[in-house]
């Protein structure tokens, strides 16, 4: 039976703004308080989805969240009508209002960790929503994320959903941004690769000194247990603390893997040689031939990687066995990175082609091509069981672009977040979106 890696891209929400909320994310902080363009952001993301679909890749859509999150503000003591809650938050605690308006759910690499049926003990595809408890503005996402994923992957015969891990620092979980999977074929048993920044309980593991390590070893181990993964199908690796302190807040900012290949920076991990040996041995037992592609620091520095988001790219397998790398425009703008990529694709190796996409609106907030997608490996039967409303087609692309043009603003500043009309615009748009994507009632305003 044929199997696929389906990329479900996050649809950018109507409140896309530059709040500078993500400490440790250089781009997020450096562009704080600039005016954003939600319409442009959403259309840029949709253009990438359409392009991948037209290249023959399976492509889906993951809906954004309701923002501002009035219910979250109520839990923090703001009372009255929805408009009064927003007004009072803007007057007394603007940072909380900004956090409640964040469109960060667009980066669905953080939405969940996904294990395909070939790896799990019960033969189902498992999803665990990420608690994202390191940042308040992201920690409020997982209840809606769980409902949206449940509406997309509803058939319990094929799909299993787990609640987010306990929302405490010891189980900080950032989802698939710190997880990848290696396999010979998407339908065969593979090796799941969990990268952590620190251990909550074991002091033998060093921690970064400047920026927080968002993923814990204990969270990764808990997800592996929940998904019923076997020990011989899992590898844990620690991210280099020094690169976290240079702005590498997730593993997907310094490494990307797909199929049998890991594309990574020389400084990405601790005990790299040991990790590579383990990956090679475990994948070989599952019929795979692991290949490591190391980018040396002498050619691309960590600073280059962070500024260009070279590794926050999509590594896609083509029918002829070669791979395609999807990178943001910022890679072409960095002389050292672009020179490296030209040499890489002309060397006759595994990665034969690079395609560049303009994702400036997302990039300015710290998210590149890899941040915008959640990968789900599915066989033909499982793909047929997915809610068909979320699978990208040419008509759906046209419908969504029209929907964006109808509902989104082309400029949004911090002051605009205090406008109660923005909440009404967002709810109107999302109510229509759930009908377009056939999701049913997944948002709090539709349920309560």
UniProtKB/TrEMBL annotation:
| InterPro entries for this protein | AstB_sf, SuccinylArg_d-Hdrlase_AstB
State any GO BP term from the record: L-arginine catabolic process to L-glutamate
Enzyme Commission number(s): 3.5.3.23
* An annotated Gene Ontology molecular function: N-succinylarginine dihydrolase activity
Active site per the UniProt annotation: 174, 250, 371 (nucleophile)
Any keyword Hydrolase? yes
Q: Locate the residues binding substrate.
A: 19-28, 110, 137-138, 214, 252, 365
Asked if the Swiss-Prot or TrEMBL record annotates the protein with the keyword Hydrolase, the reply is yes
Domain of life of the organism encoding this protein: Bacteria
Xref: Gene3D superfamilies: Succinylarginine dihydrolase
Q: Which UniProt keywords apply?
A: Arginine metabolism, Hydrolase
Q: Name one Pfam family in it.
A: AstB
Q: How would you classify this enzyme at the top EC level?
A: hydrolase
Report the HAMAP family cross-referenced here: AstB
Q: How does it assemble?
A: Homodimer.
Could you tell me what this protein does? Catalyzes the hydrolysis of N(2)-succinylarginine into N(2)-succinylornithine, ammonia and CO(2).
Family assignment?
Answer: Belongs to the succinylarginine dihydrolase family.
Its name, as the record gives it, is N-succinylarginine dihydrolase
Which species is listed as the source? Pseudomonas chlororaphis
What's the source species' lineage? Answer: Bacteria, Pseudomonadati, Pseudomonadota, Gammaproteobacteria, Pseudomonadales
């Amino acid at each position: 039976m044929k199997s696929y890696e389906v990329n479900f891209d996050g649809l950018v929400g109507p409140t896309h703004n530059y709040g500078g909320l993500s400490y440790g994310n250089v781009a997020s902080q450096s562009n704080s308080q600039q005016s954003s363009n939600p319409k442009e952001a959403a259309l840029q993301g949709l253009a990438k989805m359409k392009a991948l679909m037209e290249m023959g890749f399976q492509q889906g859509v993951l809906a954004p969240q309701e923002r501002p999150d009035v219910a979250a503000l109520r839990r923090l003591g703001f009372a009255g009508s929805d408009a009064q809650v927003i007004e009072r938050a803007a007057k007394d605690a603007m940072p909380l209002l900004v956090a409640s308006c964040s469109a960060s759910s667009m980066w669905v690499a953080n939405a969940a960790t996904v294990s395909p049926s070939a790896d799990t003990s019960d033969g189902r595809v498992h999803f665990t929503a990420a608690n994202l408890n390191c940042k308040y503005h992201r920690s409020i996402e997982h209840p809606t994320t769980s409902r949206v994923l449940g509406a997309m992957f509803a058939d319990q015969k094929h799909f299993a959903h787990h609640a987010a891990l306990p929302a405490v620092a010891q189980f900080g979980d950032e989802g698939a941004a710190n997880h990848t999977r290696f396999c010979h074929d998407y339908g065969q048993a593979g090796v799941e690769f969990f990268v952590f920044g620190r251990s909550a309980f074991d002091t033998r593991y060093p921690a970064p000194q400047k920026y927080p390590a968002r993923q814990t070893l204990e969270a990764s181990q808990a997800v592996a247990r929940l998904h019923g993964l076997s020990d011989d199908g899992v590898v844990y690796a620690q991210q280099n603390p020094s690169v976290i302190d240079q702005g590498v807040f997730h593993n997907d900012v310094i490494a990307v893997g797909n199929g049998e290949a890991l594309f990574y920076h020389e400084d990405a991990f601790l005990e790299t040689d040991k990790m590579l040996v383990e990956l090679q041995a475990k994948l070989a037992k599952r019929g795979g031939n692991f290949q490591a592609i190391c980018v040396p620091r002498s050619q691309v520095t960590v600073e280059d990687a962070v500024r260009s988001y070279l590794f926050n790219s999509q590594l896609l397998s083509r029918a002829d066995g070669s791979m395609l790398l999807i990178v943001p425009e910022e890679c072409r703008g960095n002389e050292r990175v672009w020179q490296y990529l030209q040499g890489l694709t002309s060397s006759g190796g595994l990665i034969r082609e690079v395609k560049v996409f303009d994702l400036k609106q997302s990039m300015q907030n710290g998210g590149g091509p890899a941040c915008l997608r959640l990968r789900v490996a599915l066989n033909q039967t499982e793909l047929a069981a997915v809610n068909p409303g979320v699978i990208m087609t040419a008509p759906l692309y046209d419908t969504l672009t029209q929907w964006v043009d109808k509902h989104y603003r082309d400029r949004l500043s911090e002051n605009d977040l205090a406008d109660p009309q923005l909440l009404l615009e967002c709810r109107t748009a999302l109510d229509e979106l759930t009908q377009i994507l056939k999701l049913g009632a997944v948002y709090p305003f539709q349920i309560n």
